[in-house]
Specification:
Radius of gyration: 14 Å
Number of strands: 3
Structural class: alpha+beta
Oligomer: single chain
Strand content: 5-15%
Shape: globular
Length: about 110
């Protein structure tokens, strides 16, 4: 995915990269997936197609799984896929914290 492709969905990410930001930036796109910009390279993680019931805790779930996976020593790309899977599982259940899946539930 080219940087121009995410500019329409995430002007903030494109703007930071254009200004020389060199860290890692993750932008969640909800039902459209997630994008990571790292050292000028852009990674797109497509969404998992699910029947959403309640998106209340999806963002918190995504960030929690992303942070936990990175803290466990995994690569950013792996962490993005894990976080996307967790958020997809989360939106299939009602509630916020009660909807967050256990790690064993993720494929």
């Amino acid at each position: 995915v080219a940087l121009k492709a995410i500019a329409g969905t995430s002007p903030g990410a494109a703007s930071l990269t254009a200004r020389g930001f060199t860290g890692a930036l993750v932008v969640t796109l909800g039902a459209r997936g997630a994008v990571a910009v790292r050292d000028g390279a852009v990674s797109f993680v497509p969404p998992r197609i699910v029947d959403a019931v309640d998106a209340t805790g999806a963002g918190d779930c995504f960030v929690g799984y992303l942070a936990a996976t990175l803290a466990g020593g995994r690569d950013l790309d792996v962490a993005l896929h894990v976080a996307t899977a967790a958020a997809a599982a989360c939106v299939q259940r009602p509630g916020a914290s009660a909807a967050i899946p256990h790690a064993a539930e993720l494929d």
